[in-house]
């Protein structure tokens, strides 16, 4: 019974994934640029999950447009591609602004570029504050 309900709502899986990725991107941009916090997508696993969901959404909507002839799927496909381009251009980790570096006997550290002679290092959990030190 539960499986039938899940299969009946499978058409909402791609839009829900898209909205989730959009929310994560918006939250990361606010957290990094406005609050100075480490983004969630600065972890390779999280970045891989977001890119996987976006690519899967694109494939679903491309198949719906090309194979099923749904005209609305073109708009959804364009939105997914726009979000991918926006992620690679605007997100600090996906765009290359934040760099991961290894520290001996410690967890990986994500560093921001040097601004005004100060380096910001992010250690620990997502959305944690960075530590500033002179360059």
Mind explaining what this structure looks like?
This protein is an alpha+beta fold and 135 residues long. 53% of the residues lie in helices and 11% in strands. It has a four-stranded antiparallel sheet, with no helix packed on it. Helix 2 (13-34) crosses helix 3 (44-66), helix 2 (13-34) runs parallel beside helix 4 and helix 3 (44-66) runs antiparallel to helix 4 (72-90). The chain is elongated and about 60 Å long.
Question: What is the structural class?
Answer: alpha+beta
The topology string of helices and strands comes to: HHHHEEEE
Which range best describes the helical content: under 10%, 10-25%, 25-40%, 40-55%, 55-70% or over 70%? 40-55%
- Mean pLDDT reading: 85
Overall, the morphology is elongated
N→C terminal distance: 61 Å
Instruction: Give the biggest sheet.
Output: 4 strands, antiparallel
Q: Widest sheet: strand order?
A: 1-2-3-4
Number of helices: 4
Number of extended strands:
4
Structural Rg: 18 Å
Task: Give start-end ranges of low-pLDDT stretches.
Answer: none
Beta-strand proportion: 5-15%
């Amino acid at each position: 019974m539960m499986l039938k309900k899940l299969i009946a709502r499978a058409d909402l899986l791609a839009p829900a994934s898209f909205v989730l990725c959009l929310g994560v991107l918006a939250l990361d941009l606010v957290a990094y640029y406005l609050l100075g916090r480490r983004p969630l997508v600065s972890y390779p696993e999280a970045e891989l999950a977001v890119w996987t969901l976006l690519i899967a959404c694109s494939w679903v909507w491309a198949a719906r447009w090309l194979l099923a002839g749904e005209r609305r799927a073109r708009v959804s496909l364009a939105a997914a591609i726009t979000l991918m381009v926006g992620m690679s251009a605007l997100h600090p980790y996906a765009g290359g602004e934040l760099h991961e570096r290894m520290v001996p006997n410690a967890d990986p550290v994500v560093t921001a570029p040097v601004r005004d002679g100060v380096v910001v290092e992010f250690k620990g959990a997502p959305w944690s504050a960075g530590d500033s030190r002179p360059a």
